[in-house]
Structure formats: C-alpha cells, structure tokens
Amino acid sequence: MTPQPSGPTAEALPRLPWRALLLLSGAAFATVTTELLPASLLLQLSDGLDITPATAGGLVGAWALTIAVASVPLTRLTARVPRRRLLPVILLLLALATTGTALAPSYGWALTSRITAAAAHGLFWSLLVPTVATLVPPARIGRAVSVVLAGPAMASIVGIPLGATAGAALGWRVSFAALAALLALAALGIRTLPLSDAPQQAVRQEGRDPALWTVLGVALAGGLVITGHFLLYTYIAPLLQQFGGYDNATSGILLFVFGAAGVVGTVGAGSLSDRFPRQALGWVSAAFAGSAASLLLLDLHLAVAVVVIAGWGLLIGLLPPVFQMHLLRIASPGREATSGAIGITVLNLGIAAGATLGGAVLDNWQAGALPAVAAIVIAIATVGLVVNGLRGQRTAGGAGAEHTADAVLDGDDPGSAAPDRSAAEAGGVRS
Questions:
Q1: Least crowded by CB within 10 Å, which of 90, 108, 162, 180?
Q2: Distance from the Cα of residue 12 to its chain's centroid
Q3: Dihedral of the CA atoms 148, 151, 153, 156 (nearest 10)?
C-alpha cells in the first residue's frame, strides 16, 4: 500500500507568499475594474464625449475584440522577457492608456487609449496564472490562484459601484484618473517581487484533434450566451436609468447587488459542475435566458429589480467556471490548453458582439427592448447546449456501462476510477 501524506507533512508545506499574492490580486482588481467601468458610466461618457450611448458602447466592444485578437500574438512575442520586468511594464502601459482615457478630448482619442489598454490587459491576464504557479509548490497552486482571483471578484462588488458613484459625483474623468493611479501603484509594488519565469509549456500535441468540432460547437454556444449577457451589461446604465427609472445612487446599489450575487455564483459553480458535468452548462444557459427575460420587470418596483438583478448576477457568476470546466471535460487528452484558448477567444468575441448588437437595439428601439433580444439570443444557445448535453449523457452512459462490465470481468472495483477523474478535472480548472 502506498503511504498517504500525514497531517504533519501537509503542515510542513511552505506558507503562501501572501504579499506577492495580494499584490497580484490588487493588480487584477485594478485591471478588471478598468475593463468593466465604462459600462456603468456609459451615459456620462456619451455626454462628455458628445456621442450617443450606442457609440460609447463601442469602447466596450473594442476592448473585447482587441483581447481576442492580440493576446496570443503578444504572449508569444514577449515569451523571452523576464516576468519581473514584463508585468510592471504592462501595468504601467495600462496606467498610461487609462490616463489617456481620462484626458480624452474626443471619442477617437478615447477609443485609441482603450484599445491600447485592452492589449496590455490581455497580455497581463495571459501571464497572471502561470506567474502565480511559479510562486508556490504544486500542492498549493489552487489556493494561491483562488487568492489572486479574489481581486477580480471584488471588482464587481467594490470597484465598479465605487467607480460609478465617483463618476456620478465627480465626473467620469476622475474615476479613470483614479484607476490610472491605482494601476501605477500596482506596477511599483509588483516590481519589488522576486518573480521567476513560468516553466516551459508541454510539447504541443500533433495531428488532428478528434474533439475539435465538439469543442468549437460548445465554445460558440457559450459565446452566444456571453453575447446576450453583454448585450445587456454594456448598456446597464440606460437599462436601469432610462427603462427602470432609477437614479444614480439606486443604480449603484443595484450594481452592488449584481456583483455580490456574482461572487455567490462563482463559489457554487464548481460543485454544480462536478455534480452534473454534462447538464450544468445547458441548465445555466436556460436559466440565463429566463433571467434576461425577467429584466423586463425592472420598472415594476425596486424590490423586484433587486430580485431580478440578483438572479442575473448569480448566473453570470456561475457561467464562466461551468463553461470552462465543460470545455476541459470534452477536450481531447493533451489538448486542454487549446480548448481553453478557444473558449477565451470566443467569449471575448461574444463580448464585442454583445456590445455591438446592444448598440443597434438601443439605436433602433428603447432600452426596454434589450432584455427581450438578449433572452432570444441566449435561448438559441441553450437549445444547442441542452442537445449536446443529452447526446453526451447517452454517450457517457454507454461507455460507462461498457467500462463497468470490463471492470467486473477483470475483478476491479467499477466505481474506483470516477472520483479520481473528477478530482483531476477539478484540480486542473482550479490551477
């Protein structure tokens, strides 16, 4: 029997490098706040730059499209640059570009600065988790990554409402200037860390991927769900104020509810996906379609708005982890990283498509039409995901029965392999 690790052995593991992890988490908080803030300041941006809200939404779409196009090439281009030098430079570039947004005299200037910031943001996030992995032993990677990713989660419940409130009271330029200062401070802090380079990636798999078309289909469906979400979220300010009739202060409270519910959803995503690996993504998508439709009730009463906004936030917290875990499970062995990269690219294209489609809806109809269009888009994706889940369940059932019969004939315990498989997959997602 192989000896199992004892309690003292686990306790002997080195402590987490809290200073480094908290600095990286703070930097991630600042970058995600910078990414999402324009959606909550859309009306102020449109007034300040003398453009329509739909045109201002292009700042969100351009950001996502830039990340989808530029992240992989920039990561390859900077692969030989030491992380201890590269990460602070990226954050300083983000700070300068965000300063450019704060000072923008025109829409063209603001768009250029946002595209520059998006390229830096995409590179930062391509390097973030691999960098965290170099700071801790393998047994602690999951915990370390969870500490760092707490920053982006807090961006939704602290950074965005705070930025929106400051923007409403002091002007949107002040909010972006404050973020630029925070990014510069993060760059200085990370510059002091003794970071090392990430280990070399495994040799890329050769030959045709038998699961490629399945991965692409699921990724495209997930991208449609994100399209529906950002069709709404990009224009959440006019949705709450023009359609719902809520003032800036109340809108800030509703944004806080949205972010807090998202954190709850993220916490519960792993359990849902592990328990229902084939069905979870389709179920979340179906609930998302219903949630989008329920936003048509925003203008009934504040209590109703709190409930439907909380449901929406809960589902967007659930969706990305469930989606990523599903892609991991259907990927061919050795192709998990490629599957994940496809997912990230499609999701960012979905963000851009959502911002563009939402702008067209806003230009041709009123903000009240956004929930109905989003629900239709997400419902289309749901059909594909539910059918895929049912097909996968039948396939897995047949394969499972065949495996069980083989195991019984061999004298093995037929249930022993399943928990190991699930644990390995969950660990892969966390790290």
A1: 108
A2: 34
A3: -160
Q: Roughly how many angstroms between the first and final C-alpha of the chain, as a whole number? A: 28
Report the alpha-carbon distance of residue 222 to residue 346 in Å, rounded: 8
Half-sphere exposure of 382 (CA within 13 A, CB side): 18
**In Å, how far are 103, 118, 326 from 338, measured between CA atoms?**
39, 22, 14
What radius of gyration do the chain's Cα atoms show? 22
- CA–CA gap between residue 133 and residue 200 (Å, rounded): 12
Q: Please tell me the distance from the alpha carbon of residue 193 to that of residue 187, in angstroms, as a whole number.
A: 10
Q: How far apart are CA 430 and CA 254, in angstroms?
A: 30
> Which residue is it, tokens 């809200």?
53
Q: Which amino acid is at 115?
A: I
Residue 99 contacts by C-beta under 8 Å, 6 or more apart in sequence?
113, 176, 177, 180
Cβ pair 221, 323 in contact under 8 A = no
Q: What is the pLDDT of residues 33-81, one digit of tens each?
A: 998 888 788 888 888 888 888 788 888 778 878 887 887 788 778 877 8
* pTM value surpassing 0.70: no
Q: Indicate the SS3 state at residue 49.
A: coil
234 phi, psi to nearest 5 deg: -60, -30
Classify residue 206 by its DSSP letter.
Answer: -
User: Quick one: tokens of 340?
Assistant: 């994940």
Token pair, residue 204, equals 């890329």
pLDDT of residue 398: 46
Q: How many residues does the chain have?
A: 431
* Residue 44: half-sphere exposure toward Cβ, Cα within 13 Å: 21
Q: Which of 321, 332, 218 is nearest to 273 (CA)?
A: 321
Q: What is the mean pLDDT of residues 167-181?
A: 91
